């Protein structure tokens, strides 16, 4: 049984509403682990996306949660936020005025005017409340500077903890799928059928069907995933109209 120090991660998760999981290198193991984490975070009511610079191909089709993957990330986006009820907004439009862009927010008749203190402008895309990266940020290419802002958790097989990491989990003896099999329950996240299936696929590929780079914990992780993929047992209910004290044996006559 692996035992990671997760106290800092749990503290960040306790207040998180949004999450981003960065998977720098496209492998079955890393994508399976990233999607398993994303699925469990979604079930914990945390809006989650998985960023991977390279789009997965047909070889990844058996993994659950592929719709959560994005392959575009632009830190130069302009975000304009209105602290104003959506129910009182009629429509949003734009026009050009001498080469200048005007954004027009039309409120419904009788609604109060949008005040200046209700408008906030951010010159780059807003970081998620909590961010995970599975591997080295240097392999993210043009998006490598995404780690320069926000709360980042580094998950790595290399003992090279980055200065930008608010917390780090390093395990040099395990693939990502093995790490996350133990990590998810430690974080209070449920290992359900879909996430366990992903991790089991990742484990099989990373260890060539449990034949290379394995340890006792690898088999323990595989057993935990296999158990979690099984449907819950149906417990038969007894018939309340039958008295169990009465047998079906015949009563002899005198």
In words, what does this structure look like?
Helix content is 24%, strand content 21%. It is of the alpha/beta class and 254 residues long. The chain folds into two domains: 7-73 and 126-228, inorganic pyrophosphatase (n-terminal core); 79-122, no CATH class. The strands form three sheets. A six-stranded parallel beta sheet has the order 3-2-1-8-9-10, with helices on one face. It has a two-stranded antiparallel ribbon with strand order 4-7. Strands 5-6 form a two-stranded antiparallel ribbon. Helix 2 (28-43) runs parallel beside helix 3, helix 3 (176-186) runs antiparallel to helix 4 and helix 3 (176-186) crosses helix 5. The longest helix has 16 residues, at 28-43.
Indicate the topology.
Blueprint: H1 7-13, E1 18-22, H2 28-43, E2 47-51, E3 69-70, E4 79-82, E5 89-97, E6 100-107, E7 119-122, E8 130-134, E9 152-156, E10 165-170, H3 176-186, H4 193-206, H5 216-228
Parallel strand pairs: 1-2, 1-8, 2-3, 8-9, 9-10
Antiparallel strand pairs: 4-7, 5-6
Helix pairs in contact: 2-3, 2-4, 3-4, 3-5, 4-5
**Strand and helix order:** HEHEEEEEEEEEHHH
Low-confidence segments = 244-254
Total tally of structural domains: 2
Structural class: alpha/beta
Q: Mean of the pLDDT scores? A: 88
| Helix share bin | 10-25%
The CATH first-level class of the largest domain comes to: Alpha Beta
What quaternary form is this?
A: single chain
Gap between N and C termini, in Å? 67 Å
Biggest β-sheet: strands ordered side by side in the sheet: 3-2-1-8-9-10
Task: Indicate the overall shape.
Answer: elongated
CATH superfamily grouping of the largest domain: inorganic pyrophosphatase (n-terminal core)
Strands, total number: 10
Radius of gyration: 26 Å
Beta percentage is 15-25%
């Amino acid at each position: 049984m692996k035992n990671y120090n997760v106290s800092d991660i749990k503290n960040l998760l306790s207040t998180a509403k949004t999450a981003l999981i960065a998977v720098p290198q496209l492998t079955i193991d890393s994508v399976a682990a990233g999607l398993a984490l994303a699925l469990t975070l979604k079930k914990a009511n945390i809006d989650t996306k998985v960023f991977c610079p390279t789009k997965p191909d047909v070889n990844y089709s058996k993994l659950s949660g592929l719709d959560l993957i994005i392959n575009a990330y632009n830190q130069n986006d302009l975000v304009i936020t209105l602290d104003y009820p959506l129910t009182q907004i009629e429509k949003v439009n734009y026009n050009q005025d001498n080469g200048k862009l005007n954004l027009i927010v039309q409120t419904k008749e009788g609604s109060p005017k949008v005040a200046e203190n209700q408008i906030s402008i951010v010159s780059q895309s807003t970081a998620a409340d909590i961010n995970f990266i599975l591997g080295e940020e240097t392999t993210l290419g043009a998006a490598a500077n995404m780690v320069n802002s926000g709360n980042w958790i580094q998950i790595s097989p290399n003992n090279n903890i980055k200065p930008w990491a608010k917390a780090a989990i390093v395990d040099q003896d395990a693939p990502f799928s093995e790490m996350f099999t133990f990590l998810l329950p430690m974080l209070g996240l449920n290992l359900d059928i879909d996430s366990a299936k992903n991790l089991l696929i990742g484990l099989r590929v990373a260890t060539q069907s449990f034949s290379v780079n394995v340890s006792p914990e690898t088999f323990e992780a595989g057993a935990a995933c296999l158990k979690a993929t099984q449907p819950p047992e149906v417990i038969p209910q007894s018939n309340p109209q039958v008295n169990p004290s009465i047998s079906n044996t015949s009563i002899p006559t005198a």
